Amino acid sequence: xxxxxxxxxxxxxxxxxxxxxxxxxxxxxxxxxxxxxxxxxxxxxxxxxxxxxxxxxxxxxxxxxxxxxxxxxxxxxxxxxxxxxxxxxxxxxxxxxxxxxxxxxxxxxxxxxxxxxxxxxxxxxxxxxxxxxxxxxxxxxxxxxxxxxxxxxxxxxxxxxxxxxxxxxxxxxxxxxxxxxxxxxxxxxxxxxxxxxxxxxxxxxxxxxxxxxxxxxxxxxxxxxxxxxxxxxxxxxxxxxxxxxxxxxxxxxx
Length: 254
Description:
Blueprint (H helix, E strand, L loop, with lengths): L2 H15 L1 E3 H8 L3 H13 L3 E4 L2 E4 L10 H4 L4 H12 L7 E4 L3 H4 L12 E4 L2 H6 L8 E3 L3 E3 L4 E3 L1 H8 L3 E7 L2 E3 L3 E4 L2 H13 E7 L11 E4 L6 E4 L5 H9 L4 E3 L1
Parallel strand pairs: 4-5, 4-9, 5-6, 9-12, 12-14, 14-15
Antiparallel strand pairs: 1-3, 2-3, 7-8, 10-11, 11-13
Helix pairs in contact: 2-3, 8-9
């Protein structure tokens, strides 16, 4: 097994399980514990994992930190697909929709088919590529500067394009959500795009897995008044869920 492949296997395993012992990783990868330790040290230097006694855990995000896109893709996958399936139930005929750059929103592409009467816009080149073979209406890519490593188009030209559209519904991804801070993301490159898409949409539906609740990120995208519905997984605990309901926030667990 090549070193890069070994690192990817470790990242994928930690994304799914959050923690792993050195012995279990050595057994899974069929390598020595010394090799595992070297790999974990490299991932620690990249701030992707935190070394613990006898193993490693997925690094916790700070308000400025963001996991790499392909690592995000492996986190809470089953939950994200349930959220995406529920989001699809809110699509209507003859709509113009925006699919935001998000690993959870990306999962909607698995369920979009045979919808010839909808228009889709996106600023995510992976979402656009995934939709290239779908039997749907028009797919428009909002042009802009490519955010390296995240497949997102941002910047001046993307903002101009969004300024000239009117959207029936946006499916929005975020990095964190809290009652005090609203809906937040970690990086400044995407915040203006998300804000402008929210402004251009008649309806905004937020898709986020349970791990993003009551967390803080660096930049606020919008408040709850700008959002019509938030869809998350049934993994969100009852106490947090009840607090949002008591604050008249339309939160759905699936």
